[in-house]
Hints:
The protein is built from five helices and seven strands, in the order H-E-E-E-H-E-H-E-H-E-E-H. The protein is α/β, with parallel strands linked by helices. It has a single domain, classed as Glutaredoxin (3-Layer(aba) Sandwich), CATH 3.40.30.10. A seven-stranded mixed beta sheet has the order 2-1-5-4-3-6-7, with helices on one face. Strand 1 (about 25-30) and strand 2 (about 35) form a beta hairpin. Helix 2 runs parallel beside helix 5.
Amino acid sequence: MKRLFGFILILLVSGLQAQQSLPSLNLKNLEGKTINTADIAKTGKPVILSFWAIWCKPCQKELDAFNEHYAEWQAETGVKIVAVSIDDSRSVSRVAPFARSKGWEFEVLLDPNGDFKRAMNVNMIPHTFLLDAQGKIVSQHTAYFEGAEFELYEKVKALAGKKK
């Protein structure tokens, strides 16, 4: 019985570890360049990965809030923000003009088939992940409320070794 329990525990821990890093899928950025999702976190710095769509108002508010502080956050911690649009083939052509009109300084990737969304088990947006410098998922949340970006940034600073 102890062996069975130990085996199950090892499987659970292995499964959790396997889900802690990003899957390897190819997406396009707004310039049409192919980006492998496994490479997103290869910066050696924390990464904020946010799934969104142009029709999602809370997503827009969250990404606007991130963008407002992005230059300062990058200077202090080196954090990288990547926004993944889950707009489908009917609306994906509107993503680039929309993101550019917002003036977002971070990278935007397109996931029109929802492959990355499914691989990351994203069911509701906004869905934001925080990755550590090794690319492991250390935190995630869904929904957005005003001020949530500061809570997330406190976690980023902790990962980057910065004090409050």
